[in-house]
Design brief:
mainly alpha
């Protein structure tokens, strides 16, 4: 879902971001990233403060 939100918003998703999101198995972290994707201006912002 996180990647789709970024794509729907027209934000380019580099391979490094795509791989990190797809490899994540922590549902809590994925939820945080999905929330960040709603407001991000760059895909790398998903990982801010980590």
């Amino acid at each position: 879902m996180t990647l789709r939100v970024l794509e729907w918003r027209g934000i380019p998703v580099p391979d490094s971001v795509r791989e990190r999101v797809l490899a994540c198995e922590d549902l809590g972290r994925l939820e945080v990233w999905a929330q960040r994707a709603v407001h991000a201006t760059d895909a790398v912002e998903l990982f801010a403060c980590e």
